[in-house]
Amino acid sequence: MFQSGALDGWQERLERHFAALAASRAGSGFPLFVLEHGLNEGDVKAITHALHQRLRNSLLRPTEHWLVWAVYAAESGYGYDGQEYWLSFEEHMPLWNDRGKPGYLQIFFSRFHKKYNGVVPTGPWAKNFCNICWPITHAILPKYFQRQFAKAMFDVRHDLARASNASPVEIGQLIAKGAWDASKRFHQFLEQEELVGRIALAMLGRQAAQHGSPLNPVTLARLVSDLNKTREAGEWLKEAKRVVGDRSRGLYLPRSSDENATGATSARTPSTSTSLGIRPALLLRRSAANRWSVVLEVPNFEDVARLGPDLSRFLKSTRCTIAGTGGAMLPPGWTLYGPQQRALTSWPGSEAPLLSFEEHNDILDNVLRGEVRLSPGPIWVFRVGSDGIAREVLSRGVRTGQTYVVLHRAPLKATLAYCTEAGMDCSGIFATEILMPDAVQPQDVAELYRAGVQVSKSVRVWPAGGCPPNWDGEGHGDWLSTEEPCFGISHDHPVEEYLLNLDDGSDIRLPGAPANQPVFIRLPQLPPGRHTLAVRPRRVGLSPHGARELEGWIDLNVRDPKPRKVGTSGHAGLVVSIDPPNPSLAELWDGTARLNVLGPEDREVQCSITLSSATGATLINEEIGRIALPIGPQQWSQRLRKFTDEPSRAQKYFEATRGRFTIKGEELGEFVLRLERDATPLRWVCQFVGGSTQIRLFDDTGSESSAKIEFSPIETPGRIQELAIANPVVSFTVTGAGGLYIATQGKQQDILFVSNPPRSGIGISQLLIEPNLVDAAADVPRLLYLADLWRRARVAGRLAEHRRSRIVERLIRQSLVHFCGMPWINIEDRLGSMDDTQSLEQLKSAVDMRPNFAAALQAELRRTTTGNRPSLKWFSDVCERYGVCEDDEACAFALHLVSAPFELGTLYGDRFLSLLEEAKRRPVLVRGARFLAISAARADLANSTFGLPGWRW
Questions:
Q1: Can you state the percent helix, strand and coil of the chain, rounding each to 5?
Q2: Residue 645 and residue 241: Cα distance in Å, rounded?
Q3: Among 17, 119, 104, which Cα is nearest to 69's?
Q4: pLDDT at 365 over 80
Q5: Closest CA to 232 of 147, 331, 172, 163
Q6: Number of structural domains the chain divides into
Q7: Residue 9 lies in a domain
């Protein structure tokens, strides 16, 4: 019989260790983590072996050796692969399913919290995953998250450097800001803001001097060592620590006699709110000798995406349009692949933002109103550079010896010889070219001033050293927060002194200089935002009460250095958008994620995918194909289906836990998407063992009761029966052709469809399996419920996607019989080819005895295929015009019924059943809506799963 002495010894040793550690942190506010156990690798192996022997002896008691079990669980959490914690836990503890319970983990770690002030999991993820949240949290930073954590710290290193007095929660929020494009699992981990902040502080060495280290030095060294094993992660962490350390040094303006003013300037903050750097730039390009076109350059919106995950998701999933371009919609994510350029065909108004999105977002709308607008008119001044491109001068000032183009809403009233009219490729605006002479007469200055143009001649301020990005030559440019901006100042006559003013602060005096002799100054590093440096010279012999001098000024747009965008490079000619923006592995593989790739029409891109298992083993590393640009959802779906239908790939896919999807376009750029399986608190896990399919259920909801398990056979999908499974945690084999397995625990539900093809004598009819709907054929609500159930199921096994699609289509088809009639359905069944225009014409004739109604719908649909997704308000208008229906709600319900039937209950609530009965009394209305839906799907206006259009309502 097993002797428990070894475990008793480990328990006593760990209790002494954690008691001492808790005493050393008393009063610091720092919680303890179980991973701070101080054991070496050999100790952990010995504990694992002793626990395994203990389980071989008898059932586990939750109060026995609880601290040893907590250490083993935390070590399993440290090796967490992002998918299945329990598989890792049970790898060296195979008897756990028989002798232990998932809920014991809460007991172990809750006791640790009470006795030693252990950390408590927080956030939505911890609330949903009540069991595994404890060991993963006490693992501090699981290996699966380490690379992403180091990258997030690197991306916000400058913010961390400025946050010298921030709390752990605020530090955690900064890390989350830097991880806006990280994986879903990592975002769930980041929900624990205080935990994330404390880890970051420990990594940076912060707060150690005042309160002691937030982490055991041995444990911290282990984390840093594991991070450094991945070269990239180690370099990111090293650079983040360097920036945070370097930022403590002070930088000042040149000293003046006014010491107080100097001190005030060195600590000054921007007078305006922090700039996101998304103000579009206006450029003019010559289209002919005396003609110009207007180009709007839209910068990258990554800084907006970093404001929060909701904004990141919105930008990735919402289309946008640019004012003055005719209203054409640009794909989701277009603003994240900047800078982008678009030619304007009409001059936009200054009241509305230059960029607008298809849907509203209050935060983004406010940002657009503030930053993404034209500078106020009525004139706009552009200086022509040596490259022939004219860039906007925000000060509207002109200098001698330079060439300018002035845009104005009304003809410019200037009769000067060096002012000539120019043509524009943009309607609603006029242009005048001004070739400034080397000397300007006073009357010319006055005439230009009356036209709204100011001649700058009193003082010149320019960047010294390297020219900053976007420098317009007249006082506006971009700087990094890590730079010390340097400027030269000169004047065309002797100057007694210069008065410098940064952001409306106190004046700083600098000695003057003779005429045309420059003076150089250096500013301190400035925080991100917009800053203004004003320079005002005082002439020699000029009374302080005399005429006011004109000011020279510099508008500094300061931002942090931008990290390289994860997984992408060179997006100049390649724009990729995916809906949803962060698809799971299942959504991409099943084809439910819509893919659009824009680029030159004469080019091809290479699409490939790599899948790996939980252990990191590569399962698939293959090219999906070379596809000609542009790629639309339907073209992508067809190519993907050919790839995924191969049986051996289908089996390897279900064993995969993560992957990478890559689109390469050579010099056009590269797009890389991380893929992960979604993990839910209640989930089925499928494995293929020895030619058979085995499934098991993981329940991390923390419920004391067992989950309800139901089964629906593939042959009779309308029949659902409850299964009595003694222990669903233990794998069981799927028999027969397979079917739908439904697990329900409170509000949590997971649905898995397992397909087992026949082993021998395979024929076409056996492969497809025509479903028998006798149990649901007479009940439309049940037919729609079943269709939604099968539609939402995850799939496993060969031919699973084909069989699932066939069942859903048959259920929808059967529901439509109640509204459209069997003759209509027979015509639909003949629509097997996209080129089958004859059957479509037969449907058009079958809508109604009056052919004009269907013809009007078809004509209106063609009219709305450009610009926005079809606005279907006109459907009600056409129905009313042809006497089909005057009830707007009934028309909307009919459209939902035939194109989005799975949302009816949510959209209409208590009205659902009554509207359903009313639709049965209006067959012409439903047939018209169905004809419209089929026409839209064939035109690929918004094609979605199962051939139904996915219009937004």
A1: 40, 20, 40
A2: 49
A3: 104
A4: yes
A5: 147
A6: 8
A7: yes
Instruction: Locate 215 and state its tokens.
Output: 């982490």
What strands, in cross-sheet order, belong to the sheet with 508-511?
476-480, 552-559, 529-539, 495-502, 508-511
Beta bridge partners of 575: 598
Identify the domain boundary among 559, 576, 600.
559
Check if the beta carbon of residue 358 is closer than 8 Å to that of residue 332.
Answer: no
Phi, psi of 631 (to 5 degrees): -110, 125
Single-letter code of the amino acid located at 102: P
Q: How far apart are CA 262 and CA 616, in angstroms?
A: 57
Same domain? 640 vs 689: no
Paired tokens of 139: 């693992």
First-to-last C-alpha distance (Å) of the chain: 69
Same domain, 727 and 800: yes
Please name the residue that has the structure tokens 């719908």.
857
Print the domain residue range for 729.
682-817
> What confidence tier does 567 reach under pLDDT thresholds 50, 70, 90?
very low
CB 537 within 8 A of CB 495: yes
The mean pLDDT of 509-538, rounded to a whole number, is 80
Report the amino acid identity of residue 148.
Answer: Q
Q: DSSP alpha helices (H): ranges in 258-400?
A: 259-266, 302-305, 309-317, 362-371
Q: Are 503 and 469 members of one domain?
A: yes
E strand or H helix that includes residue 594: strand 594-598
Give the CA distances from residue 136 to residues 14, 130, 168, 188, 422, in Å, rounded to whole numbers and listed in that order: 19, 11, 19, 11, 67
pLDDT band (50, 70, 90) for residue 607: very high
Instruction: Tell me the two tokens of residue 679.
Output: 């993990």
Outline where 362-438 has alpha helix (H).
362-371
> Band of the pLDDT at 213, cuts 50, 70, 90?
low
Residue 639 counted as domain residue: yes
C-alpha to C-alpha distance for 907 and 894, rounded to whole angstroms: 12
pLDDT confidence tier of residue 212, bands split at 50, 70 and 90: low
Q: Write the pLDDT tens digit of every residue in 372-387.
A: 888 877 889 998 887 7
Residue 841 shares a structural domain with residue 892: yes
* Angstrom distance (rounded) from CA 477 to CA 488: 15
Query: Same structural domain for residues 97 and 149?
Result: no
Amino acid (1-letter code) at residue 161:
A
Q: Which two tokens stand for residue 701?
A: 């909801």
Closest by alpha carbon to 590, among 598, 600, 602, 580?
580
Nearest Cα neighbor of 927 from 837, 833, 822, 830 is 822
**pLDDT computed for residue 566 by the predictor:** 41
Q: In this structure, is residue 832 part of a structural domain?
A: yes
Q: Which positions ≥6 away from 443 have C-beta within 8 Å?
A: none
Please, which residues have CB within 8 angstroms of residue 843's CB and are 6 or more apart in sequence? 824, 827, 828, 831, 931, 934
> Per residue in 236-277, pLDDT tens?
888 888 888 765 443 323 333 333 333 333 333 333 344 567
Q: Which residue shows structure tokens 């605020």?
A: 170
DSSP code, position 413: -
Cα–Cα distances in Å, from 366 out to 280, 304, 308, 332, 363?
16, 12, 15, 20, 5
* Residue matched to tokens 């698809």: 583
Cα distance between residue 415 and residue 393, in whole Å? 22
pTM of the model: 0.63
Residue 132: closest CA among 79, 200, 63, 179? 79
Angle between the 143-155 and 193-204 helix axes, to the nearest 10 degrees? 70
Q: Classify strands 794-796 and 748-755 as parallel, antiparallel or unpaired.
A: parallel
Q: Note whether 669 and 733 are same-domain residues.
A: no
Domain match, 847 and 891 both:
yes
> Are 568 and 491 within 8 A, CB to CB?
no
For 43-99, the pLDDT digits (tens) are 999 998 888 888 887 777 878 899 999 999 999 989 876 667 777 787 778 878 777
**Phi, psi for residue 178 in degrees, rounded to 5:** -75, -15
Q: Looking at the structure, do residues 776 and 796 belong to the same domain, yes or no?
A: yes
**Domain membership flag for residue 275:** no
DSSP, collapsed to helix, strand or coil, labels residue 488 as strand
